[in-house]
Write a structure and sequence with these properties.
A hairpin with an 8-residue loop joins strand 2 and strand 3. Helix 4 crosses helix 6, helix 5 runs parallel beside helix 8 and helix 6 packs antiparallel against helix 7. Helix content is 59%, strand content 4%. The protein has 183 residues and is mainly alpha-helical.
Amino acid sequence: MLNYRREIVCAGKYLPESKMWHVSAILEREAPIFKLLDEAANCQSLHGDLVYGNILFPLAGGDPVVLDFEDCGVSWLPVVFDLALVLERFILLPEENDDNAFRLAEEMLRGYIQTIGQSKKILACRLSDCLRLLAARALTTLAEMEARGVGVDASEWGKFLSLHRHALSRTSLLSRIEARYLV
């Protein structure tokens, strides 16, 4: 479905001319990573939106509580996509220093592996590809909303265009992080 939507946006449908050129250029350039969706193994329903606002951390201790499961219906992907999103939102965006971000990411992935009791090879695809695909998915969804007459605030467009640029700019760091964990 997402590949179909991407093709429609790239064909000039869904978006007004003012937004079309930039979004369709990104979606054309990212066409190869959309193939991850066809080739992905071990897919499952994911949260799809693990960000600060969707996780409550109790002040008095205890386990965090995850909220807002509205993306579960459209997030049928390998677990690496949720891991990449958590890395992006909790580590890569707030931490600009690559060495610090690398150490934090290593700790997060080490803790994840320890919790699930699996081997080190937990990433089914590249983190950069995951983050670029998630941003492209959001841009495609925004385009579809605009086509249906639902006004999308400019800040939403800006957020996902910025997230896409950020994933591109941190590609070498993401490659360092994933080196030990790719299947």
